[in-house]
Amino acid sequence: MPDVEFCRWDQLASDPEHERLSAELDHVFFSSSARQSFASTEERAAFRERWLGRYLLHFPEYALVALDGGRHVIGYVAGSLEDPAHDPLFADLDHFAHFGALTARYPAQLHVNLDAGWRGRGIGARLVDRFAEMAREAGKPGLHVVTARGMRNVGFYLANGFVERGAVDMGERELLFLGRDL
After folding, report:
1. pLDDT, tens only, 42-79
2. Number of separate helices (H) and strands (E) present in the chain
3. For residue 26, what is the domain's CATH number?
4. Positive or negative torsion for Cα 113, 85, 89, 37
5. What does the pLDDT look like over 100-148, one tens digit per residue?
6. I want to staple 173 with a disulfide (CB 3.0 to 4.6 A). Which of 61, 75, 91, 148 is the partner?
7. Nearest 5°: phi and psi at 151?
8. Under DSSP, is residue 101 helix (H, G, I), strand (E, B) or coil?
9. Closest Cα to residue 180, out of 145, 142, 147, 146?
């Protein structure tokens, strides 16, 4: 197992290298995203805000960053513990209207990404397990992810204890709700 350090994002806020770490976190986010092109810098910024920024801003204590031996960001997990179907912060995500019954049972949500060169080494699983432990300690009964059928991350989540609990056709793609009991 490679030498990897896990740090909470809120604890890195005072790190003298915070600006560099933030840029590296963004690099991991964008390089891992299924979406790679944007019509404008505003559209790119809105995408980041939707899938990463709001978690770092509002729930930094539930964002864990994986750092290599040289203290470079190689991955992260970011999420929240409250039911997103009932949190106005997530009102822009239409799929939660379809998954409201499921989010009550699996309220904690997460997003995990790793630099491509670090995948397959168990780091993503460790990030998910640490997030799950935080949710369990907070008394949450389960956690979830929402992804599209056929995405490469589906296999990762299934291998890490998630089970398909629901699906909804959103027009151009079918979204899966994967839940994990705690």
Report:
1. 999 999 999 999 999 999 999 999 999 999 999 999 99
2. 8, 7
3. 3.40.630.30
4. positive
5. 999 999 999 999 999 999 999 999 999 999 999 999 999 999 999 999 9
6. 148
7. -75, 150
8. helix
9. 142
Assess whether pLDDT exceeds 80 at residue 181. yes
In terms of DSSP bridges, do strands 174-181 and 142-148 run parallel, antiparallel, or are they unpaired? Answer: antiparallel
CB 76 within 8 A of CB 33: no
pLDDT of residue 34: 86
Q: Which of 164, 149, 50, 151 is nearest to 99 (CA)?
A: 164
Angle between helix 18-32 and 41-48 (nearest 10): 100
| Average of per-residue pLDDT values in the chain | 95
Phi, psi of 122 (to 5 degrees): 85, 0
Q: How many domains does the chain have?
A: 1
Q: Which tokens belong to 86?
A: 């009932």
Contact present, 6 and 126 (Cβ < 8 Å): yes
Q: Where do the H-state alpha helices sit in the chain?
A: 9-12, 18-32, 41-48, 54-58, 95-98, 100-105, 123-137, 153-159
The two tokens of residue 146 are 């929402």
Question: C-alpha angle with apex 170: 167 to 174, nearest 5 degrees?
Answer: 45
Residue 145 to residue 122: CA distance in whole angstroms: 19
Structural domain harbouring 66: 5-181
pTM of the model: 0.94
